[in-house]
UniProtKB/TrEMBL annotation:
Protein name as annotated: Nitroreductase
Major localization class: cytoplasm
Family annotation (CDD domains): Frm2-like
Key word Coiled coil present: no
Length: 206
């Protein structure tokens, strides 16, 4: 039997990564394994000029629930119209029902150091920092799903930034960029549609 090539194995994991909103507060792997995955992603995901600006905070158990049931719930209640809040609260409760969350940050100290060291590229470093952040998000998401977890990526920053910083003693220089909610799958992902690949990829000189 022919074995899969390296790219086939990687692409299979990439294709399997989907957005799972229905999650259970359980995990098929240990907290230690989840920690190991996040550690490996943060260590080995590339960054511009090897800046290594991405930071991650993993929340399990009551700490995870605190992020959604208290911090995010209360922040949204303060800004969402009362007649629309029931649907919002239900959505946030779904996140709280997951097993954990990885909060991703970008350390602005590293960005500023590069801007000072390479003034010619100064306007680009904040953009490249966002590229680095996105790479960490998708790598972590894909790796967790390869272990049988479901996940969805949320962006309640900057609405929750101050409360998150205060609750978990986050440095002022860490800018919150995304929240990856994960847990055991309790349902199937929705259908996925694609724009024709011919409209998205062009090849020359083949």
């Amino acid at each position: 039997m022919a074995t899969k090539s390296g790219s086939a194995t990687f692409l299979a994991a990439l294709k399997a990564r989907r957005t799972y909103y229905a999650l259970k507060p359980s995990s098929p792997i240990s907290n230690e394994k989840i920690q190991e995955i996040v550690n490996e992603v943060v260590l080995h995901t590339p960054s511009s000029f090897n800046s290594q600006t991405t930071r991650a905070v993993i929340l399990f158990g009551d700490e995870h629930k605190k992020l959604w049931s208290i911090i995010t719930h209360d922040a949204l209640k303060a800004v969402v119209p009362a007649d629309a809040f029931a649907a919002t609260a239900q959505k946030v409760a779904g996140f709280a029902n997951g097993y954990g969350t990885v909060m991703f940050f970008e350390d602005q100290v590293g960005v500023k150091k590069l801007q000072d060291a390479f003034p010619l590229y100064a306007p680009n470093f904040p953009v490249w920092s966002e590229h680095t952040a996105g790479a960490h998000h998708i790598n972590t998401w894909t790796a967790l799903e390869a272990e049988g977890l479901g996940a969805n990526l949320q962006h309640y920053n900057p609405l929750i930034d101050d409360a998150v910083r205060k609750e978990w003693n986050i440095p002022e220089t860490w800018a919150l960029r995304a929240q990856l909610v994960f847990g055991e799958r309790a349902g199937e992902p929705g259908p996925k549609t694609f724009v024709p690949i011919e409209e998205r990829v062009k090849t020359y000189g083949n």
